[in-house]
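Lecture notes, continued. The same structure-token format from the folding unit now serves as the input rather than the output. Read the line below as a description of shape only.
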């Protein structure tokens, strides 16, 4: 397939990723539920629980897309701390995805507040985000789409305040051979077929599966995070669902 990573020159990856997310933007939320059988919701809930943001936290949610992380974050602050001073800036390279996010926020309690803002920007060059300006940086299911993962993590380090936390939720590597076998069948056969059936777009979903295969395994990614200057606690990550996904985290000290 022309969406295969190995066949794509590095400089073409960004436009390919743009095309994929422009194609899937309107069906993105439905497809997420269909492909993960709803499990992505559990992972995202766990991601926010693991962050445990305090009142007034300033979050930068990069590759924020349709706002799943941003909304859960604000809901957590409201429900746990009765806090309406926490803020989130959603950043995404793709205006179609960000537009879906803005539309969605318009229907929530956060519409017309200053708690959520939106910015089109590449995770590799967060030019409009000042140094040491955010408490927490999140990137969920976004970093594997970026061309230079190390640049993304270094930008995260730049924009975080001292004591701030980098958190990434991403598909990762299953190391159980039995589960791995099922997972292979599911991702190589079923996901592209679901993409065709629900969104009429096999290629974009084929791309998503291949991008998951290309992303570095847990340990390697944890090392990239340490190389960018972050301090990790323990091994620096937590597996979710046998490593189908993982939460990586590091602190700027
Ligand atoms: N974080 C959301 C979630 O968990 O539902 C959206 C994840 S979606 C799979 C990936 C998002 O990454 C898309 O909205 C895409 O436009 C965005 N993206 C891809 N490359 C990017 C880059 N270089 N900089 C910023 N966003 C990027």
């Amino acid at each position: 397939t022309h969406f295969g990573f190995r066949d794509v020159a590095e400089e073409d990856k960004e436009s390919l990723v743009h095309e994929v997310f422009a194609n899937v933007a309107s069906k993105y939320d439905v497809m997420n539920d269909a492909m993960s059988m709803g499990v992505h919701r559990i992972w995202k809930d766990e991601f926010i629980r693991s962050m445990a943001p305090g009142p007034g936290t300033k979050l930068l949610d990069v590759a924020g897309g349709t706002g799943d992380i941003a909304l859960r974050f604000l809901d957590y602050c409201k429900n746990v701390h009765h806090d309406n001073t926490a803020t989130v800036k959603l950043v995404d390279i793709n205006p179609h995805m960000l537009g879906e996010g803005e539309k969605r926020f318009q229907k929530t309690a956060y519409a017309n507040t200053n708690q959520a803002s939106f910015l089109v920007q590449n995770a590799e060059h967060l030019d409009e985000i000042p140094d040491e300006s955010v408490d927490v940086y999140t990137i969920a299911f976004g970093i594997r789409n970026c061309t230079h993962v190390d640049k993304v993590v270094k930008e995260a380090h730049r924009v975080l305040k001292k004591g701030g936390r980098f958190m990434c939720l991403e598909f990762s590597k299953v190391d159980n051979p039995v589960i791995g076998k099922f997972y292979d069948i599911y991702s190589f056969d079923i996901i592209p077929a679901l993409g065709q059936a629900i969104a009429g777009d096999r290629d974009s979903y084929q791309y998503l599966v291949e991008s998951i295969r290309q992303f570095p395994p847990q340990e390697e990614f944890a090392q990239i995070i340490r190389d960018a200057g972050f301090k990790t606690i323990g091994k620096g990550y937590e597996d979710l669902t046998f490593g189908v996904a993982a939460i990586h985290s590091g602190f700027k000290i």
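Point for the exam: Residues 177-199 form the longest helix (23 residues).
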